[in-house]
Every structure is written in C-alpha cells, then in structure tokens.
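for the writeup, i need someone to sanity check this before i put it in the appendix. the sequnce is what the collaborator sent (i think, or maybe the updated version? ugh). structure was predicted straight from it, no edits. if anything looks off just tell me and ill rerun, i have time this weekend
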Amino acid sequence: MVKLIYCFRRRPGMSEEAFAAYWAEVHGPIGARIPRLRRLVQSRAVRVPGDARPPDFDGVAELWFDDVPALLRARASEEWRRSGLDEANFLDPASTAYLLSEERTVFEAPVA
C-alpha cells in the first residue's frame, strides 16, 4: 500500500470556516470518486491556545492506493483531473507540500 500526502494552506482571503466547509462538503466528494483510491483522509489543523507557534498548514490530505501502478492509473483519470482543477477554489497552490510514502507502524496501542 502507498500513501500520497499533500500538506497545504487555504486560499488567501478564505476564512477557516469557509475552507473547512468547502474541503469537506465539495472537494472531498470529488476526490472520493478517483478510481483505484482505497482510502481518503482529510486532517484539518487544530489551533490550541498557548501553542508556541501556529500550524504550518491548514490541512493534510492522505490518498491511499494498493501500489504505485494503481496510483499512476488514477492520475491518468478524468476524476483526478477534476480534483486538481477544483483545488484553486480553496487552497493556495504555492503552499502545497507533497510526499509519496509507504507507511510503517512503529507502535499501536491495543484496542481497549
């Protein structure tokens, strides 16, 4: 299994609330239609009073695929293209960080 990770900030001038709503209610369903996608996770930054610094990103998206060939086939799809075009509606493209990874669990607490 491979995981594609995008970290990004919201579009300049967009409120946190508008960003969260658009990402969850509009962009999420577009991304969920990407073929061969096994899992899609959206993680929104949480601001905690007293933190020494603000978060570097407003959100992180994780897209899971069986393997690299499945990812490459997904990238060739119309659904991938539509998802990419929609990004301009809510995120700052200059802020995007990208990582393709294989996950390795170091520790996982047992389920109580």
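The chain has a mean pLDDT of 96. The beta strands are 2-8, 39-44, 59-65, 97-101.
thx in advance!!
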